[in-house]
Design a protein that fits this description.
443 residues, alpha/beta, 6-stranded mixed β-sheet, 5-stranded antiparallel β-sheet
Length: 443
């Protein structure tokens, strides 16, 4: 019974059945053709028997195994490979269907190929998760057919697997080298101008793009026949807190990810860089109340603690309470720290409601308010208006962009640093700001 459950009829079988039916209809009209119809029927039955025996007499005709990482990086391409081996004594054709996690909503993925006897073939694909959490992979389904191709046999192979999707550690590794030197220009981003550095000498190193030319060591350059510069130690052991707003304003989607996920990914990147620079990194999350505080530290396990801390963050889509945030920061963060606040303001009135609390935080800490540019609105302002309605729509879009710039100026007027950034450039712009503040000796 189990063998019949694994039995499928191919399109070639249905074509043959149609030809048989048509031949018997034709034989009814011309009895002389009935002999040909009978011979065709017997020949078809013989092919079916041979095809069935070919497929099902081998108990284990195929084996398959899925390979992927234990953890996936949110918002990045993650590689998955499936290995299939042919144990039949003859070449076979296969169609592979991997049961993907339901969060991906992919229903049409299929791989087809022909395998020789004993051949092992690897099928590769990538998936881009857009939500943190657990992703469940099911079985590997294979449909195999012989060269006759009338029947197909289904194999259900592989093992079910659950993969955890964490904040973007791929992005974290990408920017890790920035912790040691200014490499942002290699990513097409403006150079950080280093001023006001701590003048405690550390070492002589090779010149890299972005280094201050005034620090060129000419004697070492003459000896090495290559540009060498003096490197000085930055101020170390400063506290850097990534404060993440999990309220409703952070649920706006952009390329599959919410603003909250962009903020979480950037927090992981900047925390790693802060730790590499010798600073202490910590995390605070809040919405209608402060949900969690991971105290700033530079211990060896801090990055893993930050990763696990960010992985489990969820939102209740409630209004954010900046008053609760200020009260908790005042009580729990006693040392002057760099506060990187990831939030979003859509209007000046929304900013003015929270401005008193931001000003109080600024009195005790170096506050950087990070909010997002609506790239869809930006695209709308650059499009051409063809009728009166589109003129009004474009005018409203330009007003929204102006509002964002006014928010940045209002923050600056009250001594609060700000970053207005497109979501995809959040990590780079945050790193730029952190390195700028370090070079100016503000933290």
């Amino acid at each position: 019974m189990r063998l019949f459950k694994a039995l499928y009829f191919s399109p070639r079988f249905h074509t043959l059945a149609f030809v048989l039916v048509f031949s018997y209809i034709f034989a009814y009209l011309l009895p002389a053709v009935s002999i040909i119809a009978d011979l065709l029927l017997y020949f078809s039955l013989a092919l079916l028997i041979i095809d069935y025996c070919w497929l099902f007499l081998t108990k284990k005709g195929l084996s398959a195994e899925r390979h992927c990482a234990e953890k996936f990086s949110n918002g990045d391409e993650n590689q998955v490979s499936v290995w299939v081996e042919n144990h039949y004594a003859n070449p076979v054709g296969i169609a592979l269907y991997d049961e993907l996690p339901e969060q991906l909503q992919i229903r049409d993925q299929q791989f087809s190929t022909t395998l020789k006897t004993g051949e092992v073939k690897e099928f590769n694909y990538s998936i881009r998760p857009t939500k943190r959490g657990e992703y469940y992979f099911g079985n590997i389904n294979l449909l195999v057919n012989t060269p006759i191709g009338l029947l197909k046999r289904r194999y259900i192979l592989g093992t079910e697997k659950t993969v955890s999707v964490y904040p973007s550690f791929v992005q974290m590794r990408k920017y890790e080298l920035l912790a040691l030197s200014n490499q942002l220009q290699a990513f097409g981003v403006k150079k950080i101008r280093r001023i006001g550095n701590n003048m405690e000498f550390e070492q002589i190193k090779n010149y890299v793009s972005g280094d201050d030319y005034r620090k060129v060591n000419w004697k070492a350059t003459a000896r090495k026949a290559a540009l060498m510069v003096n490197q000085y130690q930055d101020e170390r052991s400063q506290q850097v807190y990534s404060v993440i707003d999990k309220g409703r304003v952070m649920q706006m989607p952009f390329e599959g990810l919410s603003l909250l996920d962009y903020a979480i990914n950037a927090s992981l990147v900047i925390s790693n860089i802060a730790l590499k620079k010798g600073d202490k990194a910590g995390i605070i999350t809040f919405q209608h109340k402060v949900n969690s505080i991971l105290p700033a530290s530079s211990r060896n396990m801090q990055l893993n603690l930050i990763l696990e801390h960010l992985y489990k963050q969820k939102t209740a889509y409630k209004e954010s309470d900046f008053g609760q945030l200020y009260a908790n920061i005042k009580r729990k963060v006693t040392q002057r720290s760099l506060i990187l606040l990831y939030t979003n303001f859509e209007s000046l009135s929304a900013l003015h409601r929270q401005l008193p609390y931001l000003k109080r935080i600024r009195q005790h800490h170096l506050l950087v308010c990070i909010f997002f540019e609506n790239t869809e609105v930006t695209k709308l302002t650059k499009s051409k208006a063809s009728d009166l309605e589109e003129v009004y729509t474009k005018g409203i879009a330009e007003q929204l962009l102006l509002e964002k710039r006014l928010i940045a100026k209002e923050l600056q007027r009250h001594g609060i640093h700000s970053i207005l950034t497109p979501p995809e450039q959040l990590s780079v712009n945050t790193i730029n700001k952190y390195l700028e503040l370090k070079s100016r000796g503000l933290i």
